[in-house]
Structures are given as structure tokens and as C-alpha cells.
Amino acid sequence: MSPSRRDDTTRLIGLLLGTEDDWPAAFEHLLTTLGPVQHRGVSHRMASERITIEPFDLRDPVRHDVVIDRLAWWYYHPREWLKKAALVDDVYLLNNPFTFQAMEKHSAYCAMIRLGFDIPDTVLVPYKNPVDHEKWAYTAETYNLPFQLDEVAERVGYPLYMKPFDGGAWRGVSRIDDVDTLHRAYDQSGQMLMHLQAAVSPYDSFARSLTIGPETKIMKFRPELPMHDRYEVAHSFLQPEAGMEILTLSRTINAFFRWEFNSCEALVTGTRVRPIDYANACPDIAITSLHYYFPWAITQLISWSVFCAVTRRRPRVDTSSRDWFAIADDPDLTWNEKLGNYAVLADQYFQADEYREFCSTSLATLPDLVRDWVASADFDDLLVRTVQVTYPPEEHERFLAHFRGLLGLWVTDQA
Ligand SMILES: Nc1ncnc2c1ncn2[C@@H]1O[C@H](COP(=O)(O)OP(=O)(O)O)[C@@H](O)[C@H]1O
Ligand SMILES: [Mg+2]
């Protein structure tokens, strides 16, 4: 975070990282190989930097044009630095820390319900254990209405899921099939604030959609398997209508909250799409999770961050919820017309046309560059290093063969 001046010919992308090294290494390598980016007659030298954490003065200048953040969801010192960078220095952020802090999973459900999406019935119940605050005892005694958990669960219907309102990484999530597990889970929830949500069960497919800027990849997900096997390589596994709804929904929720980089989950039966988790801003994109889909993700992450840096896209901390609600509330529009209008707003927010034009001109060489690199010994070295730090020694050979196979398939599929 050390200060110094921005110069006018270099566009600097900052990476705010936790434990990961695989995609950052890929990002740095590809950005260097890409070389200067030409846009409207100007040559922009691209650079990236891993951001370190240190005391900062609120007036210190910030050198970065864009920051990609994978850390601030749990580490608040850098989160507050991001807010300063957005408000004082106009730095473009993937993602917006303001809305992400204020509008977690619960707010995403509320926004989607308001916009007309098919969220399973969801009830928020009060804390099981007292809240650690001096005013709690009096307030709760005076104002908390007694309630019967069994009756709430009965109304939602079994099976159901009990899960924290602000969710993430499966913390505190349980499937509830009967009254006993209901009470056990609620007793264990302690000071977590919990939703009871009707289970979507059975379903045809679990669709996980990763959105970066205006582009979305919908992947078939198998939550019951170990992480390296959860994303299945499957093309056209959804009916077109369901696919379109998920595409629109993913971009809508991102444009609505000003998120740029988010992965969303929906359970699909036929053409019916039921969203269950739409607030995973700055998701895991490890090679060992995404495998076949990793080259797509890293290409998009480079393209979108370079686009934002080179075109000087400005950050917006405010939202424009009224525009979305006007569509939602219009009684003359059919559901498909509403979806179409949401798509238009999302495309406007993400400058989709301008972005695609930029990708096909200023970044025209990137797809081949990524393909050649994924096929190279250099990429294989990165894969070996990643497997070595991720799995125990006796598993190295098996996992290397697994990921080499999937990434080899991706290279073949590009032909
Ligand atoms: N309503 C639901 N119906 C069916 N399965 C669900 C439902 N809610 C959660 N799950 C299952 O539990 C997992 C974790 O729940 P999720 O809401 O995604 O929490 P987290 O934010 O921790 O990822 C999901 O990936 C899914 O497998
Ligand atoms: Mg989830």
C-alpha cells in the first residue's frame, strides 16, 4: 500500500491476496506475456503487483488503477483500505466492498424476490443465544415475541436447510429432515443468525455460474463430491430457457449490487430455476477447483481488469435500485420481458458492447496466448507446484494425471 505517484503510460493492477498462489501466478505470467495494450491510438503498458498490508494514511495517494480482491471478505484492514481507495482515489475494484459488506446473502435473496425470481421459501429466525450487548436482556425481554420453532419449520416444510443469513463456505449449513435435527441445529447455531429455507429436493442439476464483468460461465456442479470433482465438464446440460434465466440472473444480481466477480448457485428442474446462493463475491477460482474451466476464468479476469484499467472505467459506490424495481413493478410486462429488460440494464452497467469490442481488437491475441501457455511446459510446472502444495505426497501422481487430463481436454476443445 506504499504511496507514490501514478504515471500516465503504465496501468497497474493490484492483487490483494490470501493464501492462493496458482491463479495469481497465471495472471502475472499472462499479463506480462500480453505486452502493451493498444487502445484508441494509445499504447498502455500493463503491470501487476501483489499488495502488502501496512499502516496507511487516508490521504496517501494510491498507484493502482484496478484492484482484484480475494482477501477483504475476512480481513478488515485491507477492506478499509479498499474503501479509501475507491472514495479518495477513484480506484476500480473487483468487488465493491461497500455493497458486499452491507448486502450479503440475505439481501441478495431479498433483491431477487423483489425482482421476481423463484427463491425457495425462506424465514429468518431470531438468535438462539443472547447477543453480546448490554442492552440485549432488556430489549429481548420487552420486545422479542416468543415463537415456536416447530411451527415455523412446519410452515416452511421438510426437508429444509438451516443456514447463516450471511453464508459462505458452507459454514453452519445443515439439512433438516425432522424436528430432532431442527432443534439440534438451532441449539448449535448459538450467535449465528439463521435462515430456514425450503429444500429444493430433488432437482435435475445444480448450476454454478461464475460471472466476471459481463461474461458468465454456467457449470454443472456436484456439491456432494470432493472439491476437485465438483465441477463436471458438461456442455448444454440445461434447457435453453433455464440457461438464459441463469445468465440474466447472474448478471442482474452483479449489476444490481455493483459486483464484478461473483459465483452463484441455482437448482434447476426442467425449466424452473431456483436460486439458493447468490453472494459469493470474489470466489475461489483455484486451478484445482475449476480445472477445465480455469483458462476461461483467467482469460476473463485479465480481459475485464485490463479493460477497466485501460479505459479508465470509474468505480461507482452508489446503486440504482429504482431502475430495476421499475421493471419488476411494471404490471404490463411478462416474466420474459422483465428478464429481457434486466439483461439490457446489466449490459449497460457492464458496458458489454464496448467490452466485447475491446476484447476482439485490443485483446485479440489473448485467447491464443492462453491456449499456447496452457499447452506449455511452463503451465505444467505451475500445475505440479499447485498439486504439491494442495494434496498429500501419496496423492500427487493421481491428481496430476487428473488435472493434466482435464486441461489437455480443454486445449483440444479449442481447436
Ligand atoms: N434450499 C436448498 N435446497 C437444496 N440444497 C440446498 C439449499 N440451500 C443450501 N443447499 C445445499 O447446501 C449447500 C450450502 O448452502 P449455501 O446456501 O450455498 O451456503 P454457503 O453460502 O455456505 O455456500 C449448497 O451448495 C447446497 O448443496
Ligand atoms: Mg454456496
**Strand order, largest beta sheet:** 2-3-1-4-5
Stretches where pLDDT is under 50 for at least 5 consecutive residues are none
Number of strands: 14
Which class do the helix and strand fractions yield?
Answer: alpha+beta
Distance between the termini: 42 Å
Main sheet properties: 5 strands, mixed
CATH architecture of the largest domain: 2-Layer Sandwich
InterPro entries: ATP_grasp_subdomain_1
Protein name: ATP-grasp domain-containing protein
GO molecular function, one term: ATP binding
Organism: Nakamurella alba
Set down the secondary structure blueprint.
Blueprint: E1 10-16, H1 22-34, E2 37-39, E3 42-50, E4 66-69, H2 76-89, E5 92-94, H3 97-102, H4 105-115, E6 122-125, H5 136-143, H6 149-156, E7 160-164, E8 174-176, H7 179-189, E9 194-198, E10 205-212, E11 215-221, H8 227-230, E12 231-232, H9 240-257, E13 261-269, E14 272-277, H10 287-290, H11 294-310, H12 321-328, H13 335-349, H14 352-361, H15 366-374, H16 377-390, H17 396-413
Parallel strand pairs: 1-3, 1-4, 4-5
Antiparallel strand pairs: 2-3, 6-9, 7-8, 7-9, 10-11, 10-13, 11-12, 13-14
The protein binds adenosine-5'-diphosphate and magnesium ion.
Descriptive labels:
single chain; 415 residues; alpha+beta; Rossmann fold; Dna Ligase, domain 1; D-amino Acid Aminotransferase, Chain A, domain 1; 4 domains; 5-stranded mixed beta sheet; 5-stranded antiparallel beta sheet; binds adenosine-5'-diphosphate; binds magnesium ion
